[in-house]
Specification:
Order of helices and strands: HHEHEHEHHEHEHEEEHEHHHHHH
CATH topology of the largest domain: Rossmann fold
Strand order of the largest sheet: 2-5-8-1-9
CATH architecture of the largest domain: 3-Layer(aba) Sandwich
Number of helices: 15
């Protein structure tokens, strides 16, 4: 656990003991981690960080509505197969044509199969799994239970090294109990003011202490407003900090908030809500308090 904690610190991923213990247990038990939480709290970043810490390949499957087994697992290289058929016709050699065409040479690995066949233990990031349908979720059961997949033409392919698996969900739909049973669950929330200050210091080290604290307080106040739909992510906090640093500012002001609010809030509706319910002046006062 101490090595994991140090690894997180070295790459600037600021977290707490609950996350470190969860990651440690998932690795020791060789179970996937299912991370739920609002967009922008660091779910995807956790998978990326594991790849950095263990100096291994990060294999990412970005989920979306309509994702099916073929796009996630494998496809046959039809163009290469057709070219092979043409060559064999010209050579008038058709022996074992089917066996030749459906071999590893013509298999296009997609993320899931790539993770299964990796020569070194990889990190498999299945991002936003809640965007897929229940059928695809059920398909993942075999993979996450036995870490093997079935290719009809080749048989069952079993992982040489069980991947480190991270699944993320933005809670767009309820995931099945079957998927949850196969994972260690972790919920990530937005950071406290204190932790966000630590994150800013780690990622934007040149910014001064006073402005760092003001930024963390201001973002915290915006996130507290229930009417703002797309709350600022940690990445947007860091973008704001870098922007203010680029402008050579050392303290927030009402004018500066108005000029740079579009870095934190990305929709017209949220900006209007901010102006009506919080306001640049109130935000500046709170950040300075």
């Amino acid at each position: 656990m101490e090595n994991i904690r140090k690894g997180f610190e070295e790459v600037g991923y600021i977290t707490d003991s609950e996350v470190i213990i969860t990651v440690y247990l998932a690795l020791k038990l060789e179970k996937p981690i299912l991370i739920e939480g609002e967009p922008g709290v660091g779910k995807t970043e956790l998978g990326k960080v594991l790849g950095q810490i263990f100096h291994t390949e990060l294999i990412r499957l970005q989920c979306y509505e309509g994702l099916d087994e073929n796009k996630a697992l494998y496809e046959w290289n039809y163009q290469k197969q057709l070219l092979k058929i043409q060559i064999m016709k010209e050579a008038q050699s058709c022996e074992n044509v089917e066996q030749d065409l459906f071999s590893q040479e013509y298999l296009l690995e997609r993320p899931l199969l790539k993770a299964i066949q990796a020569e070194k233990k990889p990190v498999l990031l299945i991002d936003e799994v809640d965007k897929t349908d229940e059928e695809f979720e059920a398909f993942l059961f075999e993979l996450l239970s036995d870490f093997q997949v079935s290719v009809p033409e080749l048989g069952t392919l079993t992982a040489s090294h069980i991947p480190m698996v991270v699944l993320t969900s933005n809670n767009e739909r309820e995931l099945s109990d079957g998927l949850k049973r196969r994972c260690i669950y972790l919920f990530l929330d937005y950071p406290t003011i204190e932790r966000e200050i630590s994150i800013i210091k780690a990622k934007v080290p040149d910014i001064n202490e006073k402005l760092t604290e003001q930024i963390a307080k201001a973002v915290h106040l915006i996130r507290q407003n229930r009417e703002i739909k797309k709350k600022p992510s940690i990445a947007e906090t860091l973008d704001w900090a870098r922007a203010l640093l680029t402008l050579n500012e050392d303290s927030l002001s009402e004018k500066l908030v108005k000029q740079t609010l579009n870095i934190l809030l990305k929709t017209k509706a949220d900006i209007e809500t901010f102006n009506k319910q919080i306001g640049a002046h109130a935000l500046d006062e709170f950040a300075r308090s």
